[in-house]
Amino acid sequence: MEIEIQDLALEDAEALFQFELANRTYFSSMVPDRGDDYFVYENFLKRLVLLMKEQEEGTSQFFLIKDTSGEILGRINIANVDKNGVGELGYRVGKMSAGKGVAGRAVRMLIEAGSDDGKITGLSAKTTRNNIPSRKVLERNGFKLERVEEAGVVYKGEKLDFFHYRLIF
Length: 169
Hints:
Strand content: 25-35%
Shape: globular
Helix content: 25-40%
Order of helices and strands: EHHEEEHEHEE
Number of helices: 4
Structural class: alpha+beta
Number of domains: 1
CATH topology: Aminopeptidase
Low-confidence stretches: none
Mean pLDDT: 92
CATH class: Alpha Beta
CATH architecture: 3-Layer(aba) Sandwich
Number of strands: 7
């Protein structure tokens, strides 16, 4: 499956909302749910507008992972870029695309684009202990485990420790 990453645009709002709705249960099986408020379209749209403002200000970059027909397969972003050019990587791939290498390829594409533009010098990322697929994506893309944070939070019967990773270009 060929993929591309495209800048997040307001024109994608409805399709992105449907993607989030369709994958809500799947995502919440690995990370805490975003809450019912997020899944009200008007609220979702307000949050999307705020993300677009962050993107315009240059503090974050938001992208959609799409297949060649334009279907949304996931999201990927770089947020909170610090003064040294290190941003926080985040991504999520829908259930129908999970296990097909989509996340790994999207992360690789974002790393290549970020390192080429010179504004981003590195990425940090964190994931939960139970999100082994995400940990593998990071490790296969050269991220190194920096530390494990014992969060002490229990989610769905499991302790949510966070694994913190870093990649410097």
